[in-house]
Specification:
Layout: H1 3-35, H2 46-82, H3 85-91, H4 96-138, E1 150-151, E2 157-165, E3 168-176, E4 182-196, E5 199-213, E6 220-233, H5 254-281, H6 291-302, H7 306-309, H8 313-371, H9 377-400, H10 406-429, H11 437-449
Length: about 450
């Protein structure tokens, strides 16, 4: 490796390391603010809390690495430009592509590592983090009441609270689970909840209790109360882990997700055959009809009123039964298609985001050279990354709705920003400004004021 390559790589490594630490710390602080209220006060050991934090650091690193590459490139090339080192290199006959080559090599190494990390390490850590988070949630559930949501983790009962105030709980609804012989429903204006030993004690005030014997449905009782207390034995107030939970799309490697996709595609083929059988056995289909004609048939039926189909009541019933069967199968088919799109999006995301490191070099290096080191360099990097992230989120939403393909949803931001980066690099090679002189003067004036 030549001295120039070593020198530029050294210039890149320091800002990359610093920005990676700072960005990860920012993500960590935000995570702790949102999560620590659900962890503290549950009697968890320090090692369990540290394990929960470390496991969640994985997805923070996956987000911080591409952004750190962008910050490092902007700062390194901006510093070299401000010290006239880039001018000296170009005066010595070194072309801009040659100057950018070490940064592209650096980004390629980071991208390869990130691809491996996203595909082989991150899914398992995400899965373990979710399992540990679920186990923590089940410890002392009184600390995790969310207003307006049903709490189904309590044994024997399900509870909903409409409001949580500093003085207690308001508008409380509690009812026993379906497998009980006696159904109990309790409504209270307000109450309190606390844990004593291995029991949860719920104190309720100003409410009603409804009791129904499921074996004798005529045995129904309604009781009003000023105050009552419900004692629920809980055996899992200690942290209990499980490894049997199914994996979500962000907890699987690309091979696992591809296996799921193959299974869903087989299910779709079975549904297609079932729809064709239903259609062919109905009075409206023939053995030669294809799936295209079935789709046309459904589209036609949706636009027609029942009275317009046929005056024959028996045929009307057969018509409706056929429609309902086919529409039921197509709804299941559409759900499989949405699942396939979601999995394909995650597969492409595992590789598209690491490749963005190379794209950020094409954008960040020439911008750093043109603007030189300034106080708004970090702001430009953050703004560019959030534009890229907004493109990814919008693409993911469009892919889930089958408006665009999963491939385009994840790779289009790289293609667009890569084209912009090539244009900026071309302008830098020809020593042309990307920003107008007015904008340049504005930013220089703002930098001096800062």
């Amino acid at each position: 490796m030549k001295k120039l390559d070593r020198y530029i790589l050294t210039e890149l490594f320091t800002p990359f390391a610093y920005s990676l630490l700072i960005l990860t710390f920012i993500f960590l602080v935000n995570f702790l603010i949102r999560s620590m209220d659900k962890i503290l006060g549950k009697g968890l050991g320090l090692l369990v809390v540290l394990e929960f934090i470390v496991l969640n650091l994985a997805w923070m690193l996956a987000l911080a690495i591409p952004m750190s590459v962008l910050v490092a490139v902007l700062m390194a090339y901006g510093r070299m430009a401000s010290d006239h080192e880039i001018t000296a290199m170009r005066s010595g006959g070194i072309s801009l592509p040659r100057i950018l080559r070490p940064a592209l090599l650096f980004a390629a190494i980071i991208a390869v590592f990130t691809m491996y990390f996203n595909n082989a390490i991150l899914p398992d850590l995400n899965h373990r983090a979710r399992l540990l988070g679920g186990a923590i949630y089940r410890v002392r559930p009184d600390l995790d009441i969310s207003p307006g949501y049903f709490i189904d983790d309590l044994p024997q009962y399900t509870m909903r609270v409409n409001e949580v105030t500093p003085t207690g709980l308001r508008d409380i609804v509690i009812f026993s689970k379906e497998n009980h012989e006696s159904q109990v429903s309790i409504y209270a204006d307000y109450g309190h909840l606390k844990v004593l030993g291995d029991r949860i004690i719920i104190s309720l005030y100003e409410g009603e209790k409804h009791l129904l014997d499921m074996k004798k449905l005529d045995d129904y009782r309604k009781e009003s109360f000023d105050s009552t207390r419900l004692s629920i034995p809980v055996n899992n107030l200690q942290l209990e882990r499980t490894n049997r939970a199914s994996r979500g799309d962000r907890e699987m490697s690309s091979a696992m997700m591809q296996g799921k996709i193959d299974t869903y595609e087989e299910s779709i083929d079975q549904i297609n055959r079932k729809i064709k059988t239903i259609y062919q056995k109905s009075p409206f289909g023939t053995m030669s009809d294809s799936l295209v004609s079935i789709t046309t048939f459904l589209d036609t039926v949706r636009k027609r009123h029942l009275s317009e189909a046929t005056p024959d009541i028996m045929v009307n019933r057969e018509w409706n039964r056929t429609i309902e069967k086919i529409q039921s199968e197509t709804r299941i088919q559409e759900s499989y298609i949405r699942q396939i799109n979601r999995l394909k999006v995650e597969i492409h995301k595992k590789f598209a985001m690491p490749v963005a490191c190379l794209v950020f070099v094409l954008i960040g290096a020439p911008l750093g050279i043109m603007t030189r080191k300034s106080s708004w360099t970090l702001g430009v990097a953050i703004g560019m990354f959030f534009v890229y992230w907004a493109f990814l989120i919008a693409g993911e939403e469009l892919a889930d709705r089958s408006i665009i393909t999963p491939f385009m949803s994840m790779w289009l931001p790289n293609i667009v920003m890569g084209a912009v980066g090539l244009w900026i690099s071309w302008q830098a090679m020809r020593e042309r400004r990307v920003l107008s002189s007015d904008w340049a003067r504005f930013w220089r004036r703002k930098s001096k004021q800062d």
